[in-house]
């Protein structure tokens, strides 16, 4: 939050709105999105594993309840 505040103040001192938007984009939005993406990798991996386990469990239940046909 403090970094966003600093960058907003930096952008406010820029001479034009284009400079301010570029300052905010390159000093705040892009770096923070990269940080959030990198720190969320463990969470994404766990969610993917849980989804795969749920799919495997559903597939096992479906095959166990399906008639043999033989």
What does this entry show, briefly?
With 70 residues, the protein is mainly alpha-helical.
Would you give an account of this structure?
The chain has 70 residues and is mostly helical. 84% of the residues lie in helices and 0% in strands. The protein contains three helices and no strands. The radius of gyration is 24 Å and the shape is rod-shaped. The relative contact order is 0.08. The mean pLDDT is 89.
Write the layout of secondary structure elements.
Elements: H1 2-12, H2 17-39, H3 41-65
Order of helices and strands: HHH
Euclidean distance between termini CA atoms = 65 Å
Mean pLDDT over the full residue set: 89
Strand content: under 5%
DSSP helix count?
3
Helix content: over 70%
Which of globular, elongated, flat, extended, rod-shaped describes the shape?
rod-shaped
Secondary structure tally: strands: 0
What are the salient characteristics of this protein?
mainly alpha; 70 residues
